Amino acid sequence: QVQLVESGGGSVQAGGSLRLSCPASIPISNVGVMTWFRQPPGKDREGIATTFTRGGPQNYADSVKGRFTISLDNAKNTVYLQMNSLGPEDTAMYFCAATNPGGSWFPFAAHEYKYWGQGTQVTVSS
């Protein structure tokens, strides 16, 4: 079984930056895709950044394009999310997730993912 443990959240002022980390209990290459999701209070969980772990393109939700960057460190079995130019609209619980996709699937659909971290809270104040 794969365990994921997010960290790096906290409270920041608008315009600030945070870097989230998600180390895995197994080599990241053993799963095909890792994705960051977020869930603002009272709203549905939203996929925001995704990457293949064995090479391939990355993709971002329109809400974070140009501000957030997903990256991998295979030696540390860790996926990162660099978040810049944060605003109050980015306040949410952030989760990392992993899966081995097959057939038709949607990378930002939460139901596609088998493994989830516990979440880390990001709060952005004005």
Ends apart, CA distance between termini: 40 Å
The rounded Rg comes to 14 Å
**Mean pLDDT across residues:** 95
Strand elements, count:
10
What is the H-and-E element order? EEEEEEEEEE
Shape: globular
Tell me the number of helical segments per DSSP (H or I, 4 or more residues long): 0
Structural class: mainly beta
Explain what this protein looks like in three dimensions.
The protein has 126 residues and is mainly β. Helix content is 0%, strand content 44%. The protein contains no helices and ten strands. It has strands spanning 10-13, 18-23, 33-39, 46-52, 58-60, 68-73, 78-83, 92-99, 115-116, 120-125. The strands form two sheets. Strands 1, 3, 4, 5, 8, 9 and 10 form a seven-stranded mixed sheet that branches. Strands 2-7-6 form a three-stranded antiparallel sheet, with no helix packed on it.
Q: What's this model, at a glance?
A:
The chain is mainly β and 126 residues long. Helix content is 0%, strand content 44%.
Fold blueprint:
Layout: E1 10-13, E2 18-23, E3 33-39, E4 46-52, E5 58-60, E6 68-73, E7 78-83, E8 92-99, E9 115-116, E10 120-125
Parallel strand pairs: 1-10
Antiparallel strand pairs: 2-7, 3-4, 3-8, 4-5, 6-7, 8-9, 8-10
What keyword list fits this structure?
126 residues; mainly beta; seven-stranded mixed sheet; three-stranded antiparallel sheet
